[in-house]
Write a structure and sequence with these properties.
Elements: H1 8-14, H2 16-24, E1 28-29, E2 34-35, H3 44-48, E3 52-57, H4 59-76, E4 80-84, H5 85-90, E5 99-105, H6 111-122, E6 126-131, H7 137-141, E7 144-147, H8 160-179, H9 184-205, H10 208-218, E8 223-228, H11 232-247, E9 250-255, E10 273-277, H12 283-295, E11 300-304, E12 313-316, H13 325-343
Bound molecules: fructose -6-phosphate (F6R).
Residues 58-61, 105-107, 110, 113, 157-158, 245, 357-358 line the site of fructose -6-phosphate.
């Protein structure tokens, strides 16, 4: 049942305010400015002894993990990174007892992720799951974890589950942070930011008509570049994947800082760039990248908190706390991919060559 929407993807994009509300519900503890995550099976002493966090997933779940690693590093000050689950498994990684491993999966059935979890458990590691489908193989195999409560996702490409997974990581980062060195004041600031998310997503969804017009303008492109810096880079990666998957337009994502080390050679009027430009400590650096592109006559669509002079178009999104901005900046780009694919007449819910759940290697 598409509930009045033309596609499941559109329905699922539209459901995000409610979905985010669900992942937050019942978990926030205002008294101690923290969150309760009962299923982690990790007491405070164990949480304090974690020396490193390694996040594993595939595709969109890997991208959510990249943002999650950034959230954990900034809030809990635990070194954290994300890696594609299949790469991890085949490079014979050093499995360290002080590292907490986290497997991320919408379906909870992705073979590459499940096999990595099984290999880790065989070596005695502690593995948590950040999973959407309740009772799925990865959820059962993990030592504990959290459900992301996005609800059923039918469209082959992931949207609301991506957003909810990132919010789940923000909760985990806050939880770990408050056990370690995150202050009550910062905890409170993040909680207030989290509570603003559903309303702000609602606001972004209202700009759909404008994004649809922009999509028509970019639908003819042969290829597109997506750039972002630090927190914005995984947003660029995910937006580029979404565009590729459903429109079949070739797209690349680069850290904005890497442009001059190679990809700047591609910039010309026929190759538009989507730039993630949050109003944070890197704003001036990001603006410099826009100037470099403009100097090569590249077209620019910015996703920003204020209109960018150097950009041909800006999608203005509401500002949240710096840490949580990536969650909101991804949403207009889901709509951009959607309307680009729609303008090109693609089968959005079932893109060619892809399956919802990849249970084979
Ligand atoms: C992207 C997409 C895929 C999945 C990936 C992992 O839109 O749908 O990249 O994210 O196959 O799937 P899960 O999260 O079910 O493990």
């Amino acid at each position: 049942d598409m509930g009045g929407h033309d596609t499941y993807m559109h329905k699922e994009i539209s459901e995000q305010p409610d979905a985010v509300d669900r992942v937050l519900r019942g978990r926030i503890d205002d008294r101690f400015s923290t969150v309760h995550l009962g299923g982690l099976n990790l007491d405070a002493r164990e949480a304090r002894s974690i020396r490193r966090i390694k996040i594993l997933g595939c595709g969109t779940s890997y991208h959510a993990g990249l943002i999650g690693a950034g959230l954990i590093e900034s809030m809990a000050r635990i070194p954290a990174d994300a890696e594609p689950a299949s790469e991890f498994r085949y490079r014979n990684p050093v499995v360290d007892p002080d590292t907490l491993y986290i497997a991320v999966s919408q379906s909870g059935e992705t073979y590459d992720v499940l096999a990595a979890v099984q290999e880790l458990k065989r070596k005695g590691a502690r593995v948590l799951g950040v999973v959407n489908v309740v009772g799925s193989a990865i959820a059962r195999e993990a030592d504990g974890g959290m459900y992301v409560h996005a609800g059923p996702e039918v469209c082959v490409v992931s949207t609301k589950c991506f957003t909810n997974t990132v919010v789940a990581f923000a909760l985990l980062a806050l939880h770990l942070g408050r056990i370690r060195d995150l202050s009550v004041t910062d905890g409170k600031r993040i909680i207030e930011g989290l509570r603003r998310l559903p309303g702000q997503i609602e606001e972004i969804l209202k700009s759909e008509d404008d994004i649809k017009k922009l999509a028509k303008e970019y639908a003819g492109a042969q290829s597109m570049m997506f750039i972002g810096r630090v927190r914005g880079y995984p947003v660029a990666l995910e937006a580029s994947l979404k565009l590729k998957e459903i429109s079949y337009i070739h797209a690349e994502a680069y850290p904005a800082s890497e442009l001059k080390h190679g990809p700047l050679a591609l910039i010309e009027p026929a190759l538009p760039t989507v730039a993630i430009v949050p109003d944070d400590d890197l704003l001036e650096k990001n603006r410099a990248a826009l100037e470099e592109i403009k100097a090569r006559s590249g077209r620019i669509l910015a996703v920003a908190h204020q209109t960018q002079e150097k950009a041909d178009h800006t999608i203005v999104v509401p500002k949240n706390e710096d840490e949580l901005d990536p969650i909101l900046m991804g949403i207009p780009l889901q709509l951009l991919a959607y309307h680009t694919a729609l303008a090109m007449g693609r089968d959005i819910d079932k893109p060619r060559n892809l399956a919802k759940s990849v249970t084979v290697e």
